[in-house]
Design goal:
The protein contains 4 helices and 19 strands. The chain is mainly beta. It folds into 2 domains: 335 residues, no CATH class; 56 residues, no CATH class. Helix 2 packs across helix 3. The longest helix is centred in the C-terminal third of the chain and has 18 residues. It starts with a strand and ends with a helix.
Length: 392
């Protein structure tokens, strides 16, 4: 088993130049819609140092689109769906690309998909967006925006599947008093490469619930970012990932507290098994000087099931004001809890069943937050299949 020096067994300190790799302020990170404003990354840069650049199908180096992904939407009543061009003035308002692949995706897509939850609409049924890759050996770019207007409420599931390389930007524009729940599923074929930047903008008293489920693909790199434009915003970012032989699954969350009296909570949990399985979680929280009354916490836990797997976990917390409610973070990576296994086996439960119970319990907190029964059942079945593959 290989575990990063930034995430040994137990809790780790954040890296502010003491006891870890120094990181620059997130307030200073460059962002642009212009792909040519970014240098081609070589892999030594801080934001790319964990990513296997040679496996990105040249998405970082100007790979042209050779195909297109298919986007199908089953919209619930109260939600409108549009196909829009890149020049649509509504696009790009939730955030600006902060790396070259995100800028490449912005520059390369032609048609985007825009979902709008109307003002005061309370949509009870989930909306399903299915994104299917362009096919093995093909490269595609895309753009999706979900707008939740004033005092609306909705649940949207974005399901990724199929083959090929795919890079996109996904925007969530959550209006004043709105409540938007999003579940993003990455269930790609074994050959797929997916690099995606999620940009969420929260208005006054807006509520945003964002859950990422990453299971399939050769390389998957997701970058969810939340910014607040009005007081009282409330964001929860949850993640569940399961990497097996040779997979690289990378998640980089960034919460930018720009205004006062907002809340954020991040919980990501992952399991790994098989030679070369690699997961990365980077959690950045920036509390700016104007963000008094902030309440924030982030947590990452990883469960390593076999030798040959590696988990990197780096929480970073940057605070520019002392007038906050609370702020904290924690990270832990380790194997099965021997005491839990002993307790279960002492009560007559065979070891393989005991291990499965421990893994299910490990993920239970995230599973409870998935409010769409079909998605939760699918995820539980996928976890069971992963455990059967390793013989747990």
């Amino acid at each position: 088993m290989a575990v990063s020096t930034e995430a040994q067994h137990g809790l780790t300190d954040h890296t502010h130049g003491v006891g870890g790799t120094p990181v620059s302020s997130r307030a200073d990170h460059f962002a642009s819609f212009d792909v040519d404003a970014f240098e081609v990354p070589g892999g030594r840069e801080e934001i790319w140092r964990f990513t296997p650049m040679k496996r990105l199908k040249n998405l970082h180096n100007g790979a042209p689109a050779t195909g297109s992904a298919t986007v199908e939407v089953k919209a619930a009543a109260g939600i409108t769906v549009e196909t829009v061009r890149r020049g649509d003035a509504r696009l790009g308002v939730a955030g600006t690309p902060s790396d070259r692949i995100a800028a490449q995706a912005w520059s390369s897509f032609t048609d985007g998909t825009l979902l709008t939850v109307g003002k005061n609409e309370e949509v009870t049924e989930p909306t399903l967006v299915t994104v299917t890759g362009a096919g093995e050996g093909e490269v595609a770019y895309g753009h999706l925006q979900i707008r939740s207007e004033l005092f609306s409420k909705a649940v949207v599931v974005v399901d990724h599947r199929g083959s090929g390389a795919y890079a996109d930007n996904v925007e969530f524009v959550v209006g004043d008093g709105a409540h938007l729940t999003v579940i993003s599923v990455q269930d790609w074929a074994d050959d797929a490469v997916h690099v995606s930047s999620h940009h969420a903008s929260l208005g006054r008293d807006a509520t945003f619930r964002h859950t990422v489920i990453t299971l399939g693909g050769d390389v998957v790199r997701l970058t969810p970012t939340v910014t607040y434009t009005g007081k009282g915003g409330d964001a929860e970012l949850n993640g569940l990932y399961f990497a097996d032989h040779g997979q690289h699954l990378e998640h980089r969350t960034f919460i930018d507290h720009k205004v006062s009296n907002c809340r954020s909570n991040v919980v990501y949990k992952g399991a790994l098994q098989g030679e070369g399985a690699h997961t990365v979680w980077i959690g950045d929280v920036l509390i700016r000087a104007a963000a008094e009354g902030t309440e924030t916490y982030e947590l990452n836990r990883n469960l390593v099931l076999t030798d040959g797997a590696r988990a990197d976990s780096v929480p970073n917390l940057e605070i520019e004001t002392g007038e906050i409610v609370s702020a904290g973070h924690a990270s832990a990576t380790g194997r099965f809890d021997d005491e839990q296994l002993f307790y279960l086996q002492a009560r007559g439960i065979p070891e393989d069943q005991a291990r499965r119970l421990v893994v299910r319990g490990f993920f239970h907190e995230i599973l409870l937050k998935i409010t769409v029964p079909e998605v939760r059942e699918r995820l539980e079945a996928a976890i069971e299949a992963e455990l059967e593959a390793v013989g747990a």
